[in-house]
Amino acid sequence: MSKKNVIVSNVSEGHDNPIAELVQVACQFDSDIMLESDNRRINAKSIMGIMAFNPSDGMSVDIVTEGADEEAALDAIEKFLVCE
């Protein structure tokens, strides 16, 4: 299991449809990818979960990945959320 805390920044400015694009990034990996914030934990591969979670600028999010490609998944989700 890998875990990292990030502060969301410029997601709405850096992406045309950030919710759908985040799910697409997550679905490229076999690992389980969870996002946690304020006692909420959602599956990053669930579009309904991401819509309810609504990652927005300034939000502190823990990315938790587990599986064969967990490090690559963690890096990809981090880059998406901080718009690198």
Task: Describe the model.
- This is HPr family phosphocarrier protein.
- The protein has 84 residues and is of the alpha+beta class.
- It has one domain (2-81): 2-Layer Sandwich (Histidine-containing Protein, Chain: A).
- Helix content is 38%, strand content 27%.
- β2 and β3 (40-43) form a beta hairpin.
- The chain starts with a strand and ends with a helix.
Q: Helix- and strand-based class?
A: alpha+beta
Major sheet attributes:
4 strands, antiparallel
Strand order of the largest sheet: 1-4-2-3
Using the CA coordinates, give the radius of gyration. Answer: 11 Å
Strand residues, percent: 25-35%
Mean pLDDT across residues: 93
The total count of strands amounts to 4
Q: What is the H/E string?
A: EHHEEHEH
What is the fold named in CATH at topology level? Histidine-containing Protein, Chain: A
Number of H- or I-type helical stretches:
4
Query: Would you identify the CATH H-level superfamily?
Result: HPr-like
Give start-end ranges of low-pLDDT stretches.
none
Question: How helical, in percent, are the residues?
Answer: 25-40%
- The N- to C-terminal Cα distance equals 23 Å
Shape: globular
Total discrete domains: 1
Tell me what the CATH architecture is.
Answer: 2-Layer Sandwich
Name of the CATH class = Alpha Beta
Domain HPr: 1-84
EC number: 2.7.11.-
Protein name: HPr family phosphocarrier protein
Keywords: Transferase
Distinctive features:
84 residues; alpha+beta; Histidine-containing Protein, Chain: A; four-stranded antiparallel β-sheet; 4 helices; globular
